[in-house]
Amino acid sequence: MNIMTLLPFIVLIGAMFLMTRSAKKKQQAAVQMRNEMQPGTGVRTIGGMYATVKEIHDDSVLLEVAPGVHALYAKNAVGAVLPDDEYNRIIDGAEKGTVVPDDVSSLTGASAVNAADDDTTEKGDAGEKIDLGKEAPAEKAAEADADEPKADAAPAEDADAKAAEAKDAKKDGGADAK
Predict the structure, then answer these.
(1) How far is CA 49 from CA 59, 84, 87, 102, 119, in A?
(2) What pLDDT, on the 0 to 100 scale, is given for residue 27?
(3) Closest-CA residue to 45 (of 83, 73, 66)
């Protein structure tokens, strides 16, 4: 046999070996990580829930998901064992120095007081509302009323009267009654 005919098979077998080897290393690292869990350690489950380890059993782990709320999970459901500082940062909120705006004023440049108290701003002022190309429902209704002539209420009353007469005819055993 020629070496050139065996070369694709050798390359394929080598690639499969490398892929299974790396997957096996990852699996061993995950098992080692789960075995290093101790009660009081912060973990993230594969579903994305953060909890504290309370008890560790052979194939399961008891997690405290909230104060006084415990849940039993399989050890395989633990996706990551987190260092204490990272777990506390995630549970307690954002890092110090990170400011999350609670209103839109920080995005538009206006202060919250100016935007709330000053409704008489000129165009171009920082407190002006940003036009996103949408009209308010009240403005649409006002434009619709101005464009369309008002219809008389009489045709609607006639339709109601006819419907009531047809209903009475059915009750009395009229031609349409079944």
Answers:
(1) 19, 16, 12, 25, 45
(2) 86
(3) 73
CA dihedral sign, ordered 70, 75, 79, 80: positive
CB contact set of 45 (below 8 Å; sequence gap of 6+): 51, 63, 73, 77, 78, 79
Distance from chain centroid for Cα 12: 42
Q: How far apart are CA 80 and CA 104, in angstroms?
A: 36
Give mean pLDDT in consecutive 10-residue pieces for the chain, a chain of 178 residues.
84 90 87 86 91 91 92 90 87 63 65 48 55 63 59 58 70 55
- The reported pLDDT for the residue numbered 93 is 76
CB–CB of 15/5 below 8 Å? Answer: no
Measured between its terminal Cα atoms, the distance across the chain in Å is 91
Global pTM value:
0.43
- Per-residue model confidence (pLDDT) at position 92: 81
